[in-house]
Model the fold of this input.
Amino acid sequence: QVQLVESGGGLVQPGGSLRLSCAASGSIFRLYDMGWYRQAPGKQRELVASIISGISGIRTNYADSVKGRFTISRDNAKNTVYLQMNSLKSDDTAVYYCNTAPLASRPWGQGTQVTVSS
Done:
């Protein structure tokens, strides 16, 4: 059973950067395609970035709203997925979660709050 613990959120000014981490327990972590999701107040949870392993190698996908600003990566040796967020905007304010992708199949962690405000 994979358990997920997110960290790295905080308060940042518009234009700033944050790096989120998701630590996963379980020896089979490397077998899962993973993603970062976010849920803003009053909105549904959405997938913003995913990292997929295929025959041709690793592929990353991004929502249009974060493309060019966010970068997802993973370190299987550390059972960790990262989300580097640059040029942050107020619209990026949300609780960020990681889970399997493109469908979330594991219990949700507590998430990490990202607040972009001046």
User: Anything to note?
Assistant: The first strand starts at residue 4 and ends at 7. The CA atoms of residues 48 and 102 lie 10 Å apart.
